[in-house]
């Protein structure tokens, strides 16, 4: 085995290319967009500036993995992920969740031994810890947050920080669990934005000898005798490979690119049952205001948890909420440049449940502009926002359902269950085909899925 085709030039595809090329394999990475980075790449705005990645990233990358990916990655400026809990509570959460952190940087062990190890780690902290963790993981975010010393705005911001993971409002069971995991298991993030990480990975991959084909997508896999042996590109070119590693979402990999009749029924079932209703849109904007070197700032437009719940209710009924909730980040400009910003517009109707005509877009753009004016820090003024609806995200980045994590991040679709029992281990049951990316184990943590999948191939 010496030639590997990597599909997708986002963080996961780039990390996979680095590890594979460094192991001496011949690596071709195919990316449909003209530039690399995927969701984490630079997003150009009208007016010449660019947002340094539309991912505000709350989960980050474990330090040992940054080291493994090479000096360009390790030597980026890394800062702590933002937390939305009071410092004392955050420290307690991190202590309680410490044994779970390893789950984000280890491959899904065959029989769930990773989970058992994590459970044992919590048990060793004492029976009270087990009880507390078991209680929080299944709770609704509203109930857990009501117990914490936070004001209504603080509760809303904390819940909003993970509201983009699923269509559910903060009173749905399990939403506290995902918030807990994010707070307990977050790692440092690149201070200059995710695009800086994408650029660093690109340099590592080039230096390791990987080749990139950009501006052309993969149209289908070539399957011979049940094994994937290459891919056909959108322009008709056929590429042979000993192994194909896809970092696209599970439905794209297993339902769209595999020729009809070649997918084992159990794999097809798993890919079909994986839920990926994208309910987050994005507003990207240039701003005028103080340009402090390297500083970033988060803001949330909801003043109460009810605002999130109402928005989720409207979206589930196929309506755009009257008051959309924004969860945003301002990237302060470097070298005197003015800031740029990205705001997640939480709880919009999922693709297929709403028609985004010009009137609907215009009305959302106007509401977003007003919300930005009200919630950006004093002295910062936003220019006209560029809107991406969940549908736009799906089309632009080739993501089924338009979900920013390639699929909902909910307790039954996390870790060993992501995207399902058969497919979470990177090496798929289809010979010659590996799958990774945001819709695969572990969910959260930048580039880790691609790195672990590449390791699975070279080990
Ligand atoms: C607002 C927001 C917040 C987020 N927060 C976090 C966070 O806190 N932590 C976290 O870990 N993640 C977060 N994410 C998820 C984020 O998307 C990932 O971390 C990461 O950027 C995904 O990388 P990826 O390589 O798996 O996928 P992508 O970036 O989606 O890359 C896949 C690539 O495949 C390409 N492609 C699609 N179809 C084809 C085809 N047929 N042929 C060739 N190429 C194709 C696409 O163009 C794309 O470039 C967030 C996302 C957003 C936007």
Overview of this structure, please?
The protein has 459 residues and is of the alpha+beta class. It has three domains: 3-40 and 57-80 and 192-274 and 407-458, FAD/NAD(P)-binding domain; 87-184, no CATH class; 277-397, no CATH class. It is 36% helix and 17% strand. Strands 12, 13, 14, 15, 16 and 17 form a six-stranded antiparallel sheet that branches. Helix 5 crosses helix 6 (127-138). The longest helix is centred in the last third of the chain and has 18 residues, at 358-375. The protein is globular, with a radius of gyration of 21 Å. The two termini are 12 Å apart. Flavin-adenine dinucleotide (FAD) binds at residues 7-13, 30-33, 38-40, 54-59, 217-218, 247-248, 252, 344, 397-399, 404-405, 437-438, 444-446.
Would you identify the CATH H-level superfamily of the largest domain?
FAD/NAD(P)-binding domain
Q: Spell out which ligands are present.
A: flavin-adenine dinucleotide
CATH class of the largest domain: Alpha Beta
Query: Which geometry do the CA atoms define?
Result: globular
